[in-house]
Amino acid sequence: MDAALEQSPSDLLLLLDGLPRPDTWHLGSGFLAALLQEAESDGMHSLYRYAHALLRERLGNASGADFLALKSACRVLLSTGVMVEDTKAESSTKMVHPVVLDVFPSIANRETELLARDIALRWRPETESDPVVLNEIIRQRS
Question: Among 123, 73, 119, which Cα is nearest to 94's?
């Protein structure tokens, strides 16, 4: 499972809540086409559209074993949460969940990146004419 996460973009792991539950995932063009159609629906927040695009890209070249490992790992991440509030910090900050760090060494190796990306991917309101969140994501990844 860790190898499947290692090949997954950090942004995808942070945006799992905006995707269909892993129990509904299946390898095939029908599922990927449905993801595309859902992501293009009117009014969907740009973070969700971005998450859908990342999942389509990741599953588009996944083997059967890789797909099953990713699906299982995402179930674990959704049940624990990737990020949690840091109760030891004086201000309201987040940290990568300690269980996630213990179970998935590849996530521990990119903890700093996950913390930075979590800040960049925070939910902010947007209008249809001003998808500020997606614009910031594009700018930061360039």
Answer: 119
